Amino acid sequence: MSLLEKNRLPSFWTIQLVGWVLYFIVIYITFLTIAQPENYYGLFLLKGFRALTGLLLTSLILRPIYRRFADRMSIGSLVALVLVCAAVFGCAWTVIEAAYFYFTTSTFNTAGYLSRGPRIALDYAMTLTAWSLLYLVTKSWLSWQDERENALRSTALANQAQLEMLRYQVNPHFLFNALNSIRASIEEDTDRAKRMITQLSEFLRYSLLGRNDKWITLRDELDAIKNYLAIEKTRFEEKLEVEYDIDPDAEDFELPCFLMNPLVENAIKHGVKNSSTPLVIKIAARLEGEDLILEVKNNGTLNGSGKTGVGLANVSERLEKIFGDKGRFDLNQVGENVVARIEIGR
To answer: What is the model's pTM?
Structure first.
């Protein structure tokens, strides 16, 4: 249940019934102070009938009117509608009460009641005005809440869709190159081809399907990277070397699925062009306090254009959307290495 759902008011009928019961209690207790004990029961019936009349008028007549016209009207027109409805149905309430007295009281004085009719109608009109204001203000507040919740839900869905799109962007060149390598290995080394197919299958399962919750441990992320690099190692052979420096305490750290692989992919893509042979990829992970530090280094020089490509731009964008200011990505030239670094704070 969302926070907005928790903050919503009870249903209309719950509030309506509770409100009119409280109205009945207040007017009954008020008149008890001036009534004789023998009239308590008759007073109970009268005030109960008055509250029931108000309940029916507001529920069956006023509410449908406001639901149909209120949203289409300006503030001035809406105020006029409230005053007209209060006056008309205040008079109707008075007539209904007069009919109640006429049929239940043998000593009912029609002339006396008519003389007090305008004051009674005004009293009921004020009651209906107060009810109308409470109803319209509550209706307006709930509409604002619905719009706010819809906006938040739309934003959340849009962000989720964008994150899914970013996560599913697998480099097609890697896939084509892997398939070509497998094809070339089928006749030369069947066992190697089978092994590559298994590694490619595991990598694609991880990158395309992922986990249901989209969060995995660093250990799982590294397993996928090892499958990826095993395929690339088969392709480049002695031209590619891989080193790992993984802090065991960091392996249980949870992070978004497929966050680190673009760093490795970028290191191979640009390292092959800008480094001496062999290309050395160094993958490191450690904890600094409660923060996770991930680094992918390759010997070579940083692309002078300053462009990082779609993959690294996606990493930076995902970190910002998921972690805010607690997620950071940097790409720098450090000595003879290009260092891609991710920092995730808790």
So the answer is: 0.52
